[in-house]
Amino acid sequence: MSAAYKDDEEDWLTVCLKYLLFVFNFLFWVGGAAVLGVGVWTLVEKSDYLSLLASSTFAVSAYILILAGSLVVVTGFLGCCAVIREQRSCLSTYFFFLLLIFLIELVAGVLAYVYYQRLSDELKEHLNQTMTENYAQQGKETITSAVDRLQQDFKCCGSNNSQDWMLSVYIRSEQSGNRLVPDSCCKTITPNCGRRDHPSNIYKVEGGCITKLEQFLADHLLVIGAVGIGVACLQICGMVFTCCLHRRIKMDPY
Length: 254
What we know:
The protein is mainly alpha-helical. Helix content is about 70%, strand content about 0%.
């Protein structure tokens, strides 16, 4: 009688673990969609700004999240199949993929955090040089477009202020047409509007574009780090459930 009760109790625990793993898979899919969405959002929204960064860490973090999110979709189906078939080999494979995705997301989160710590120094060191030396130069069309969009989107002019453009290769050349700043500095863009740098005509923002871009990237990096590490922690629960169910399922018959 006690043996039968023990078997029933074990069966009940196994069923509970299976349902818990199904619930986890649902949350896992939701988390995977969030990871994939954040990765795509990071690369698509304001993607032009990536050409202004000296380091590729920001883009790499986003690509890692896209990879992890894609793996989550596949792994979620594998997890459901493993629970339904109740095969230890399938659960072992599922656990391996959970561990792999966990490590990938952890790396993305750590990269985002590390880059967040040195973002300000990198922008101060490289952004002004990139803008003044490469703007409107042959073969630098991507940077030119990125700078124009940066100044219009964030309503700023110059790396630190509008005076930065006085040292620009473009402004000091005949190509500028006597402009004092690029036309993208103007509040209302018209042909040759950059010839007049009065505050009524161009953006005069304290801190310049560096402050605005730093805040924008910092917000994105915080989201990348939070989502990556948050979903990675969620997967710890999945790995625990998988191990418990793996131990309770009998060996596959051969």
